[in-house]
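Table 4 source record.
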Amino acid sequence: MIVMRLQLAMNVNDLDESIDFYSRMFGATPDKVKPGYANWALENPPLKFVLFEAPGEGGSINHLGVETETSTEVVEAEGRLSSTGLETTGVDDTICCYAEKTETWVQAPDDIRWEWYVKTGEADQLMNTVVGAHRGDGPVCCG
């Protein structure tokens, strides 16, 4: 059975205050806290909940997403999205949000960004860097 979970990534004015609030609201502490960033991998409700510290933008949606279990699922999702005429970024291996990921992005109306991704490892940087592209079933290393 394929298990996916929705992702909600929000901008917040004060990360510490928001971590305190959402920890109490969900009854769970974050799985990861880094400078300007926190996330929870909640089981009930099944949600990947992410906070980005962005003073002055608090309460706004940063992006939405679907977390998958495998890179194959990301490639399949990108193929399905592309086949319906939606423009995607293609599938890339990236370092972003303190994680290594395989991901694709699509822009919805009203500038809402959706990410389909799988986390493949840990990393020490917040900003997005593409480290390789996928073609077919496997990654293509950049050099």
